Input
Amino acid sequence: MYLTKLAKDGMIALKRMQVPLYSSKYSKKTYTTHQHLLCLCIKEIQKQSYRDCRDFLDKFDQLQNILGLTKVPHYTTPPEMPAKIPTKMV
Output
């Protein structure tokens, strides 16, 4: 499926761009910035709500493995991410 390729390529691209794994040294270490950004990309590509995207990721084990998710983020977690992205990355 094209989403697995997107996730693999996205992880590689974010590493090459040297995007930090966490927005702060005090960040919770539950999810990385890379995981959040790729979840948001998947949400936008699928044209889903945050809840639908969470349900989609919950059922798609292969995508969870590629993203390195041990558990799927709560639907309220991804909307908080854009505010935490440093402006130099945008």
Q: What stands out?
A: DSSP finds five helices and no strands in the chain. The chain has a mean pLDDT of 84. The two ends are 28 Å apart (CA to CA).
